[in-house]
Amino acid sequence: MDAFIELDRVEKVFDVRKKTGFLKRERRQVRAVDGISFTVARGEMVGYIGPNGAGKSTTIKMLTGILTPSGGRLRVAGIDPSRERTRLAHRIGVVFGQRTTLWWDLPLIDSYKLMHRMYRIPDARYRENLDRCVELLELAELLDVPVRQLSLGQRMRGDIAAALLHDPEVLYLDEPTIGLDVISKAKVRRFLRELNAEQGTTVLLTTHDLQDIEQLCSRVMVIDHGRLMYDGALAGLHEVGESERTLVVDLERETAPIDAAPARVVKVEGPRQWLAFPAGESAAALVARIAAEYPLADLSVREPDIEDVIAKMYAGSTPGHTEKAVS
Amino acid sequence: MGSGRLYVAVVAGGFRRYATYRAATAAGVFTNTVFGLILVYTYLALWDEKPHLGGYDQAQAVTYVWLGQAIFAAMAIGGGGVEGELMERIRTGDVAIDLYRPADLQLWWLAADVGRALFQLLGRGVIPFVFGALVFPVALPGDVATWGAFLVTLVLAMAVGFGIRYLIALLTFWMMDGTGMTHMTMLAGFFCSGMMLPLNVFPGALGDVVRELPWSALLQKPADVLLGEADPWRTFAFQGAWAVVLLGAGRLLQSVATRRVVVQGG
Amino acid sequence: MVDGLRAYRLIGGMWIRSTMAYRASFAMTTFANFAVTALDFVGILLMFSRVKVLGGWPLPEVAFLYGLSSVAFGFADLAIGSMERLGRRVRDGTLDTLLVRPAPVLAQVAADRFALRRLGRIMQGALVLGYALTAVDIHWTPLKALLMPVMVLSGAGIFCAVFVAGAAFQFVAQDASEVQNAFTYGGATLLQYPPTVFGRELVRGVTFLLPLAFVTWLPAAYVLGRPMPLGLPHWVAFAPPLVAVACLALSGVAWRAGLRSYRSTGN
């Protein structure tokens, strides 16, 4: 397979000054990214997850040419991002979840017209791409609305369209569903799936929402303390992390604790019971069994938190010295 | 008693908050010193041409310049006090939260502004003033009483300065775009406080008018007390009267405005 | 370079349209901008209401300096004045969004918040300059006439260099944006008064160290037929274009260094 994104022992070391007293300052080096290697093939859709401060954004910033790596080798589409930032810019699309790049006081369409000219997109390509994004992201009625009047979900859809008008070969998304309601999340996910399937766009996304990964990514990478801790399928991550989903069961009346191995009851509160089961298992089979044997009224499934999964994954094996005092 | 302690804590909080901006403070000291240098030379040329202009001699004029640079930030003569934050809270509606605090809105912000002013007086004022006094001939009083009276005028100036800016900030309840207003405040501050040129140099009727406006309480009046050109008690009375009028007007406007919020916010 | 100008034009155009979304506020701030600078000149008028000359210069000649300095600074401020906000962009991380665009960052930052209201300062300076030209008795020669526009353009260039260098400094010290006010606004204020007012050391400093004297003092002394400051030869009056180019080149180097340090240290 042709490696579209290549990282070979990439490092990023920051000098951080910390106040330790009234006038005293301590300088220390923080290894935000500590020797990460991976490759992503063209057309892959990869989730990049990890706790806050793990080095996710730093990696994305190096991949997009914002930051220069302190060590290692990094190529995107054969280009060294930090050296040829503007050449790379034509081939990548970036969506910063928390920071819109749309023009606040102007109608949405104006931001797209700017992209059209700034990226020198041929007119026909621009029309075609815009029409497709407008249709799939349901933007038709928003084009003439000033961006400041859009809801968070509408703005995110608008931002995604803005990042795609110049036909990027890879799309980086930093927390694309953060703060969105369920319907908006679903719209964004459906669009990304279609983009990847039909245009073959490579997608790399960071997220806190395991459902994003579950519904979009065949591959997930976990980063913690600047190191790549896991690289593989989501199911495998659940296995390694022994993560559990929770089934919340509401019964018609109080009963004895439900017996449905491998699920185990972790909490009972009147007619409501909480059952933990391995995240890799199908919930459907479990529900069917419970429904057959117990007076079921209602139920819901809770996903494990990324932080929990990772914490369990590395319980007892905390990676050591990531911060070293220098002076 | 209990509430008194609360406001002291707010003052301390305001002080500490501004104390964290070290680089900004250093930058401000530098800028004030540069502007002081430019002004001092123009004043020296002016007083060279006309000694005893406005009743000052050269040393007094020089002292006036450095005093202006020293208290410019503390008195927020060009804006830049807590009113910016208050305006933002009014605009976003967060002010409604402040209204539910067990504290008086005006006193709360006054305390925060006094904390800010105290820090900026020390952090941004001392160095330019000492620099000016060391490099140029200045006229400083030798007696403790004058220095004491001067300090009182500074405290009163803080109250007047806050009074003006609080009124302006409250106008945000009625006018949502504050940029134009902020500009105008800055304009009035520069011109009418004597920051640009001592008010006693202003000619004729214009001079008579600006010397009675509240802005003269910010720089001109404290300077005159420090330079021994004004009677301290009359100055206190002038500043105190303006402080009472402005803070009173602020209260009035505040009660009108908060009624609006309560009605709107339901 | 061409790419940069193109991006500048595109982004500047967007900002103009953005401000036009609030016409009333635009009118008010343009007027305020005009008034703030006008008040500056009122201060000088007040001084001259009490004296006939300042540092040996009468009002029309001071107005000549004032007008030239204001217009030159005004053009620089209009073109790239928003660069003083760079520190804020570094702090809140929005600089990153500019770094993923296929255009030079300098051009994007320079065009950021492009504000036509800054025409207020230029208009006010031009009015004062117009008054000065009618009131001052200049022995015009073709060379002097040619020097006038050259002076304004070079002056704007020198001030632009100060803005760029100031922004470059903010990559290192994000909270210290006020330092550059001392050189931009402070410099413009300094140049509004005759050089004879200031101490010799200060005049030397702004001639050889931070060459603001080339914006007005040196060429204006030549046009007015006054003795050159510091006893410099007359040909120095024609140096401003060279000085401007040198300053811009140096500030460009500083900008590159600043951006490189940002990209290697992040935020």
Task: Report what the structure shows.
The complex is a heterotrimer of chains A (327), B (266) and C (267). Chain A is of the alpha/beta class. Chain A has 10 helices and 14 strands. In chain A, the strands form 3 sheets. Chain A has a 6-stranded mixed β-sheet with strand order 5-6-7-3-8-9, with helices on both faces. A 4-stranded antiparallel β-sheet of chain A has the order 4-1-2-14. Chain A is globular, with a radius of gyration of 23 Å. Chain B has 266 residues and is an all-alpha fold. Chain B has one domain. Chain B has 11 helices and no strands. In chain B, helix 1 crosses helix 6. The longest helix of chain B has 34 residues, at 232-265. Chain C has helices spanning 2-19, 23-50, 59-80, 86-92, 95-99, 105-111, 119-135, 142-172, 177-183, 185-191, 200-209, 217-224, 240-265; strands at residues 53-54, 57-58. Chain C is globular. Chain B binds chain C through residues 21-24, 26-28, 30-31, 34-35, 37-38, 41-42, 44-46, 49-50, 53, 177, 179-180, 183-184, 186-187, 190-191, 196-197, 201-203, and chain C through 22, 24-25, 28-29, 32-33, 35-36, 39-40, 42-43, 46-47, 49-55, 173-179, 181-183, 186, 189-190, 193, 196-199, 202. Chain B: This is ABC-2 family transporter protein. Chain B: It comes from Streptomyces guryensis. Chain B: InterPro entries: ABC-2_transporter-like (IPR010390).
Q: Write down the overall geometry of chain C.
A: globular
Radius of gyration of chain C, in angstroms, nearest whole number: 19 Å
**First-residue to last-residue Cα separation of chain B:** 33 Å
> How large a portion of the residues of chain C is in β-strands, by DSSP E?
under 5%
> Main beta sheet of chain C: strand number and arrangement?
2 strands, antiparallel
How many independent structural domains of chain C? 1
Helix content of chain B: over 70%
Beta-strand portion of chain B reads under 5%
CA radius of gyration of chain B? 19 Å
Number of helical segments with 4 or more residues of chain C: 13
- Describe the oligomeric state of these chains in a short phrase: heterotrimer
Keywords (chain B): Membrane, Transmembrane, Transmembrane helix
Transmembrane segments (chain B): 21-44, 64-82, 121-140, 146-174, 186-206, 236-253
Organism (chain B): Streptomyces guryensis
Protein name (chain B): ABC-2 family transporter protein
